[in-house]
Q: What sequence folds into this?
């Protein structure tokens, strides 16, 4: 028997078996019957011409007809369906044809099915990649929306908190003045005023941090360049942190590295803030009796500063997240609220601000740590790269500092 005749005999039983096997409901069966009919027609043409690529359009159309939710759940994947169809085809051939005709038909159909597998697998991969890209785009868009809501929230909250905070500060100052002089104040007055002072100072720090974060988020951080020397910068910060260091029994060492005495242009106030944050964190996350080392090196055009501590360390997978807003880590159980107490909690804005300041200078910051372990304390090393500027970037400051920079 000719293969085309064999295929014609098998058509109806094949169609009913395959459609029942692939589709459960009546409606679904109807739509799948159309697809299967087209496929069968193309298979017949492929057999007649000996060219398997006849089935490509029908297969591709089938692959394209899959919905997003089918792609999402990875259901109705074509290669396993083709597998099922091939099995049914062989069974139907054996049931409806003579053994020899069935064998001949199977031998002729096999290369067509092999070709179909290849096409289906390739198309499937293409569709899945497109689907995953679409999902990624959606996830990115919603992350961007979330980030911008976070930024908006910070900006609005900072603005709304500033006014009542200024009022409290003003009334607290008036209250202090209305009370008798230092010597005349009762011990209770002193305690109450100290409480108000501490509370408002902490709140002012948080509001200032929120304002800085929104300035950085909106690329509005403006730097005032002036000559700075890293050794002097560290001297000032360590002087401020001296009592915290001795309260916490921590040793600090500044290695006199090459470049520490080099003059460079930078925003002294902002860099002070950035390094103060990093050193406060080193104090906060290092247990008592630990050590902090400030070191560095001179590189072509850059100065690299490292701040190494013997603290609790940071998990490699958290080493990027800590530089994001509110990036304090869930894995670290914070004890108290405080700037330098061991594991003192903060709002998680210090490092994003530090990163913003360093990057606004054209620098970079990253952290290295073997991991987070409160028992073994593997420590963390923050690396800060700052470009060396022998001249200020703006004309105004250049004129102002002309006598200092002449000859550079
Ligand atoms: P905050 O100190 O307000 O929590 P930061 O942005 O300064 O926020 O730091 C974010 C988080 O990064 C901290 O909560 C802490 O988990 C981690 N971290 C920062 N510096 C160190 C450090 N030197 N050692 C260990 N963990 C650190």
A:
């Amino acid at each position: 028997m000719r293969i085309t005749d064999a295929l014609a005999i098998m058509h109806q039983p094949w169609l009913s078996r395959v459609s029942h096997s692939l589709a459960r409901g009546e409606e679904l069966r109807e739509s799948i019957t159309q697809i299967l009919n087209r496929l069968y027609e193309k298979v017949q043409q492929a057999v007649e011409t000996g060219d398997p690529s006849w089935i490509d359009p029908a297969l591709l159309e089938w692959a394209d007809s899959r919905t997003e939710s089918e792609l999402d759940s990875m259901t109705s994947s074509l290669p396993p369906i083709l597998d099922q169809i091939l099995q049914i085809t062989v069974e139907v051939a054996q049931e409806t044809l003579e053994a020899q005709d069935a064998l001949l038909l199977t031998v002729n159909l096999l290369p067509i099915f092999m070709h179909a597998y290849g096409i289906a697998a390739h198309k499937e991969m293409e569709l899945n990649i497109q689907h995953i890209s679409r999902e990624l785009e959606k996830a990115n868009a919603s992350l961007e929306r979330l980030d911008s809501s976070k930024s908006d929230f910070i900006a609005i909250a900072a603005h709304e908190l500033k006014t009542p905070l200024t009022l409290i500060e003003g009334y607290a100052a008036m209250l202090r003045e209305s009370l008798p002089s230092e010597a005349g104040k009762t011990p209770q007055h002193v305690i109450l005023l100290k409480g108000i002072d501490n509370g408002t100072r902490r709140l002012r720090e948080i509001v200032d941090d929120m304002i800085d974060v929104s300035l950085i988020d909106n690329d509005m951080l403006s730097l005032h360049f002036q000559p700075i020397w890293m050794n002097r910068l560290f001297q000032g910060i360590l002087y401020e942190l001296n009592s915290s260091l001795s309260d916490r029994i921590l040793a600090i060492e500044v290695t006199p590295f090459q470049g520490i005495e080099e003059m460079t242009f930078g925003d002294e106030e902002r860099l002070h803030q950035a390094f103060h944050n990093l050193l406060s964190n080193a104090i906060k996350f290092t247990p008592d009796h630990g050590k902090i080392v400030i070191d560095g090196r001179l590189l072509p055009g850059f100065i690299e500063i490292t701040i190494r501590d013997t603290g609790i360390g940071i998990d490699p997978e958290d080493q990027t997240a800590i530089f994001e807003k509110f990036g304090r880590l869930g894995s670290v159980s914070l004890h108290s609220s405080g700037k330098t107490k061991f594991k003192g909690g903060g709002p998680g804005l210090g490092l994003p601000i530090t990163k913003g300041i360093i990057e606004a200078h054209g620098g970079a910051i990253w952290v290295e740590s073997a991991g987070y372990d409160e028992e073994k304390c593997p420590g963390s090393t923050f690396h800060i790269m700052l470009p060396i500027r022998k001249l200020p970037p703006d004309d105004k400051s250049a004129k102002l500092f002309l006598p200092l920079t002449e000859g550079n």
Summary: The first strand starts at residue 226 and ends at 229.
